[in-house]
Model the fold of this input.
Amino acid sequence: MFCRFFSSILPLALAILSPALASAQQGSPTNLSNPPATSPPPALAPLTTASTNALATTTVSNNPTAISTSAPAIVSAGMQAPVRQAPGTERSSFSSIHVDGPYIAMTFDDGPDAKLTPRLLDILKERHIHATFFVLGQRVQDHPEILQREIAEGHEVGNHSWDHKALNKLAEGGLQHELADTSELIKQTIGKPVTLMRPPYGATNPRLSRAIEKEYGMKVILWSVDPDDWKDPGAAVVSSRIINGWKQSGGTKPGAIILSHDIHKGTIEAMPATLDALLAKGYKFVTISELLALESKNPAPTPSASSSSSPSAPKSSNSKKHQS
Ligand SMILES: [Zn+2]
Done:
């Protein structure tokens, strides 16, 4: 999800960045036509007058005009998810995984929420579904018991920063707080290290993502299905967008990483029907670490594809990525 500041600075940012964005869009025609301006969620995203970060500015090296101090978040948010790498090359982040079976991962960001997250956990438990929660340090502080329940019930927990700042706008000290302090608190809470990170707004870039992995020990996880649930379009719409897709999204496919938020009532209300429909289609829910472990070097069609209601396999190694 993206914060409201995109709306206000988008016109300026696009004017400044359009040449770079245009050249950065290789492989993803969707992003410019699906600008972050349509995204902004809640008050979770304080806009900082952040100093220019070396990590942020150096990533767009093939787009010199994009090295702007005005909007690195837009550059990065627009660039990161669609980056496609040849099979076998080391990736700096993950938006979907090539798998041989109907495996998908549900992810929930921005929690834990005192009321909604426990409701969601009940819904998941009834269906024996394991999900991945990308949590905010400041919320973990308030509700450590919810994190402990998530772990006890087989879910995975990842770092989503301390207070939802765009990481690519932060200097090193800020990164340390957002990443290391959050990981430390999660580790103290659940008793094991954190290995996954989702940058707020998906705002990262290859260099920052590699730094998050090498210096902070976490793989950067983005997403391939985004229902824009934070805009509260209603449970039925959220459900349909996840299952069938919308805009440029093709909906859920094997290997999909589905983005949602466990701080919105409509999202929680959408989950029973959404999860039941995906189960009925033959999908198997796994955590992000499990999905990563299932990665296939040579993705093959889903074995169960004989049934018309079964999920189809990814069409190619360039399986489409989406981002709002
Ligand atoms: Zn978020």
